[in-house]
Predict the 3D structure of the following.
Amino acid sequence: MSTVGVVGNPVTRVWERFLHWLLDARKASYGLAVMRIGFGAMTVTILAMYLPNFSYSFGQGSRWGEALFRNSAVNDYVWPIPLLFSRDDPDQLLLVKILVLMGVAVVYALGWRMRIVSPLFVMLWLGFAATNPVILNTGHYQTFRIFLLFLLLADTSRRWSLDARRRARTGEEDPALGFGAWRLPRWVPILANNLAVVLIGYQLCVIYVTSALWKLQGTTWVSGVASYYPLQLEELTMFPWLNHLAWQITPAVYIASWLSVYGQLLFPLFLLNRWTRIGGLILVTGMHASIGILLALPWFSLMMILGDMIFIRDRSWESAMAWVRRAPWKARRGSRAPANADAGVSATAGAATAMPAVTPAPAPPLPELPQEIAEEREAQPSSRP
Amino acid sequence: MVDQDVSTRRRASEGSTDRPRLPFAAKVIAGAAVVLLGGHMFLTAVYNAPSEELKYGVLPGAVADRYIRPYLVQDYKIFAPDPADTDRQLWVRAWVEEPDGERVRTDWINASHVELSEAYRKTLRKQLSVVGAERLMAAYSALGDAQKQVAAENHLDGKELYALNDALLAADDSNAAAVSEFIRADNYVTSYATQVAHAMWGEEGEIVGVQARAVYDPVIRWADRRDPDAQRPPSRYTDLGWVPPMEWPGQDREAFTRTFRAWAEQAGEGQS
């Protein structure tokens, strides 16, 4: 590990490497796509669940709550957001606006013209919050808003999207932005995307570490009985029999409490090494899944799980997809030739520095795909080395 | 062979030969972005500092607050410092003047139980009555003893909560901020209670007064969890008197009633 004879001091070298990390290629493109699809679908589902009683929550049936609406920060959003939704709207108009918001959320999930749809969705969503900030400016909606704002910087439709399909068809994998003859340098969107990845990753670490530090100031988390109490609350009980089952085994209550606190506290450290990262992600995903099911918090949990997806590198996503395509249960049918295995992997499998994938290593390279199959496999332009 | 390995590694670590050269402008802009990123990270961490003294005493907490609001507001006291161990409920009853002039007091209705009657709605947090109960209990707890006695009396004269506000300040004007916070929370739950009263008892006559109560009903304690005869510990509640009904411009009673009555029937509340 000696640095003798190497030009430049360690600080400069680390800085150079970091600059290349920021500017060379878009990071976490699959994780960002998962976030986009999940956030859009989640918004549509939540709004659909509110629809039967939308007036009670957001419309003319909810005007009684003005005492807490009046001084909410959501009234101070920048122009033109406050013009989009108003607490003076009659219910019929509000319903139309909610349906428009749902439509935009569907388009957001599909990833169509994201440079326009992403800011449009964010503006509509922020505007909608003014209808009832007691609901929409609290709890998981706060973090949802933060993630949506960060995603404005990201190229969320690089994978699994209508945009990606269109780019694959036209052969323009990465069209440069610009007006007329003027073109934005290629590194600008790459830098913005990677800043978004850092912002989201950092936010997740802040969430885990601060919530652990708050918990450590209580007595029940340290003594290990904390996870028993929320399981008993009417507000948080979806399946009473399941919750009753959950605290039957005393050691399980202690382990769940301690794993929650210390898993959250150490989360950033888990990220440092590949194997601890896998372990850490399995741990927090399990924690969120159980919170989502046992404590009636599916949206908060889903949002956190979706966010965590950016910690899985594109290479891992690609090997996982290759593995699924080559899966033994498909190979038996013989309908899909094993030649389908590649495309997504070929570009990365040869990378000299590739770490071993989570899943079995790809098979030896196979012949090139015929053109039409390659086009069929939408949204997977191979990343340029 | 070994030499070659070393030189390859060195080249890779220098990141010059096997990577595209970065334009000067890209380096400058990226550098500036990293500085801003650092500022954002620092202020986000300060905003979330898990101790008030640390946040405002040692760190620039006020600056962080200004930076975070309104777009990046966040709060990660999730189930912390200790998770809730009480059911937070808002109870409502009304004073109704019937057409023959007789005034009757209704039974209490547990509005939170009504709001939670549809299982799928539990995932759509938070329930408005639960928010009301939490705000009211917190604001009530911050009042002084003399003020709590005043709040327990009826304040039916005049409009809205002005009479109560004046009486609270007359009893003790040393904590004006706590009083106005209490009035705001009481305004919220009284306005809600008024809608509940119209929904449940509006057909019986004119609503002349409402009473709202935040009830904190503790669940079975950990130590008693295996005891089939275990009782819940006694509830805490806000002891508030009667106030006039409050209604806001633009409020649609019908829309509120449709939803609330459907849930109440499902919950089996208010059938007495």
